[in-house]
Structures are given as C-alpha cells and as structure tokens.
Design goal:
about 80% helix; about 0% strand; about 180 residues; 7 helices; mainly alpha
C-alpha cells in the first residue's frame, strides 16, 4: 500500500508537474509522453541512489535537464536549468508551507499531502504566460550589445546564479526542518 501511495501521490504528480511546466514554458508540442517517461525513469533511479535527500533533488534536476537535452537537442539551453529550478522552488515552498500545518500531528498528514498535490498545479492557470516570460528571459540572457536593454545579460546571469544558490541553501534548511519534523 505504501508503494502504491508513493507512486500515486509522489511520482506521478511530480513528474506530471515538471513535464507540464517544461512543455508549457518552452512551448513544446512533440514528444511529451517520451519526456514524461524519461522524467519518471530518472525520478525512480534517483530514488534508488538517494531517497529524498538534497542529493536526490539535485540529481533529479540534472536528469530532467538531460532528458530534455536528449529529446529536444538544440531547443534546450543552459538556462533551462533555471526554469526547472523555478518549478522546484514552487514545489518546495508549497511543501514547506503545508508541512507546517501538520504540526507534529501526522493524523492529517495524508489530507494535507493530497491538498498540496492539488495546489501544486495551480500555476497552470497562467500557463499561457509561461512561454512569454521564457522568451523574454532568453532574450535578456543572450548577449546583444547592439540593442539597448533594461538589464545587461551578465547581470541577469549573476542574479540567476545567486537565486539558484539561495534556493539550494534554502532547500538544505527546509529539508533539515522536515527531517526534524519526522523524528
């Protein structure tokens, strides 16, 4: 029963969320099922290597990027790692907020977990804006000295790297709190 719940409430919603997030952000119309399958396989393999630890999430992010790179080759850029990180951040912040509602009482944990999985998909209300923002991000990311831009590409790259590092640090802190909660 534990494994069935893990698949239904863990693997399937997270893999579906990341697949949809990537396809809507990059406006991908082809190979969506293959992307879902590759992300699901990488999720499963990462669990075998390191179950729900910080290393798991870092490995899985790399695997998602590699799955995209395998399927879509030239459509995938290095900045897609930051796009995957945005999806991760939403998932992590939402999990942390709702985990605090359980307050050491695991009797309502399953209910809160189901609610968290439903709320996970709320950003797709604005799915039409994902690609527009992605195109703007790509345009600002790539250098072009001939055109005047509101922010230089090096500044955007530095901000993206700083936010990525803050996210990884926050992820470590949140996982420590979650592990303390479960003990």
């Amino acid at each position: 029963m534990y494994y069935i719940l893990s698949i239904l409430l863990g693997l399937v919603p997270e893999v579906l969320f990341f697949t949809l997030f990537i396809t809507y952000t990059k406006n991908i119309k082809e190979k969506r099922i293959k992307l879902f399958i590759l992300i699901a396989i990488s999720y499963f393999l990462c669990i075998l290597i390191q179950e729900y630890q910080v290393l798991f999430y870092i490995l899985w992010e790399i695997c998602i990027y590699l799955a995209c790179k395998i399927l879509y080759k030239k459509k995938v850029q290095i900045i897609d790692i930051f796009i995957i990180t945005i999806a991760y951040a939403w998932n992590l912040i939402l999990s942390f907020i709702l985990m605090n509602f359980a307050e050491k009482d695991l009797s309502n944990y399953v209910l809160i977990y189901i609610i968290e999985r439903i709320i996970l998909f709320m950003p797709f209300i604005f799915k039409n804006k994902f690609n527009v923002l992605y195109i703007k991000y790509c345009k600002l990311w790539n250098r072009n000295n001939k055109e005047k831009r509101p922010i230089k590409s090096i500044t955007l790259r530095n901000i993206s790297l700083i936010l990525l590092n803050i996210f990884i640090l926050g992820m470590n802190i949140i996982f420590i709190n979650i592990m303390n909660f479960l003990q």
